[in-house]
Amino acid sequence: MPASAKSVPPEKTTSPPAAAPAAPGAGLSAVQRALRKLGLVRDIDFALYLPMRYEDETRIVRLADTRDGDMAQVEGVVTECEVVFRPRRQLIATIDDGSDTCQLRFFNFYPSQQKQLAVGARVRVRGEMRGGFVGRQMMHPTVKAAGTALPQALTPVYSTIAGLPQPVLRREVRSGLARAVLDETIPVQIGWRGAWDLRSSLTFLHYPTPDVAMATLEDHSHPAWQRIKAEELLAQQLSQLQARLERAAQRAPMLPSSAEPQASSLHAQLLAVLPFGLTGAQQRVGEEITRDLGREIPMHRLLQGDVGSGKTVVAALAAARCIDAGFQCALMAPTEILAAQHFGKLVGWLDPLLAERGLRVAWLTGSQKKKERDAMSAAVESGEAALVIGTHAVISEKVRFKNLALAIIDEQHRFGVAQRLALRGKAVGHLEPHLLMMSATPIPRTLAMSYYADLDVSTLDELPPGRTPIVTKLVADHRREEVIDRIQAQIAQGRQVYWVCPLIEESEAVDLRNATETRDELADALGAAVNVGLLHSRMPTAEKQAVMAAFTANEIQVLVSTTVIEVGVDVPNASLMVIEHAERFGLSQLHQLRGRVGRGAAASACVLLYAPGDSGRVGEAARARLKAMAETSDGFEIARRDLEIRGPGEFLGARQSGAPLLRFADLSTDTMLLDWARELAPLMLDKHPDLAQRHIDRWLGTKAEYLKA
Ligand code: ADP
Ligand code: MG
Question: How far is the CA of 570 from the centre of ligand 1 (A)?
């Protein structure tokens, strides 16, 4: 627990006072709560909370030597100080250091500041210098009494949040660093060859000496940074390796595929009824999965593949292997619509084959009627339901499996770590189920290795043949009429259209109104012969399913929807996708949406309607997204650009933030350090397991727990 701000003598500063004390009853003070939000709990957390930049308060400069834009610290005598009210209330003071004068301006100020700036007082002032010719000026500089000793080191500036003023955070970090136990965990014999140890590196990075080459701090190339990054990478390697070893010690049901291909196996029969042959990629990935399932170590595999690459078939084939071995398989999707689609498709393929064996597919969702759910649950418990499909209800309900051996999670980024953990509890006896996670947001290999710690990764890098590429057009939204013409033309050819409305408000009611209005407008514009449907997340599930069924049957030609169709929906006859306010969507989301068309043989198009906006231009990031969409339809390239635009934290989403993203090291550039850590980790776990554990705890703390998911 960090010391409260009270135990540290307050620093003299003109910054606003610390946030108000905690509400009565709350165990933590406001400051402690804010610190906790930043992940600052243990002493070591503070020690490892490194500055994002520094201020140089070690020198006093002459006013006459400063230039416009300089951060400058000067000392002088206050010659004037008054509060003026025009054009608005402000405090204006002037200081003189003998070389020149400078005006100080404050729009928000405390009486204490006014007192500090009494005429005749000698003050030390720090801020950004403005002007020069007409007179120097500083807005809201920090002011201290003059004459105190200058610090020997640069002053750290930490990234902070509301309720946690920089000086308070600075004090907390200083005392946390002072208390932290920083003994070496990297054994000397096999360890780090550099001169900087952990303690000296951290101390230096919090308080560097002013002679340091600032660029080496900024680009993390300074030897102290190298040491810290090496430590971090080592922690990551160690925890991954440990998770792998732990999993290797667990047991899963072995699901061997029979040596000779048996025509009577469900797997072979499914292959035979598929209306197409597998792509090379599907075959390869299928073999990777088969190999995993045949082992007694639980599979943890991520299957990534672009939208439309055919992940569902791969999943179905894996399920068939599992069922052939006499076990149950669960398939989960993040939404009911998506789960329903899987169900429909898999049932079509598998149900007749399962029926011959006295088995069936079961369906489980939260919105199911109790009677139906009870019947399904009974089928799951008896083992009659060899395949169970649904939303997370499959794991969150009180469903007992007879012998679950394989769990497949579609669109796994929508599932949290907790849900993955809950799945583990569904296994039989001491056995863990095999786990196959599917994702349509491919991420670069190095990132996958780091982020999905303990997962093996398979990639479908080939689309089924016969797809015509989707043409993507950017259209300013005042040209809506042309889009209506396009829609007419598609419908005249018997094709169908998606029209996606953006989430405009936090409120679903407003979104619903918007979507409803759009539906009415389109219905008006397209005439009575065209059916325009509406799909919105607020609608009852039964109604949603009815609309989807009508769209699938081409009873509805234009489907207006909010982003509920984002993932996985598969209606091959739809050939045009219009996305309204495309500038408001994320890149991966746009790509997912676009993937709803181009699923059949017809030439497909995606129209991105954008509002040029008040300023006449959309933001820079939004423009980069739209440009990427127009330039490429390759999901891997999209993912690469998305990562570039957003950075890994945001790209991967907060949902999974349990897994440790690297804070300091960069996998793509710190390759030498990564190699070092990779080599050392197994040695250390083997020869110095205690040190290894301490190292992991120090760096990952409680987060390490998540990696075992
Ligand atoms: P995703 O990877 O986005 O989940 P799906 O599994 O929904 O993709 O497959 C997209 C479409 O391609 C489906 O209609 C599916 O039946 C079809 N498909 C899958 N594999 C093949 C293949 N090898 N050849 C032709 N069509 C395929
Ligand atoms: Mg899919």
Answer: 9
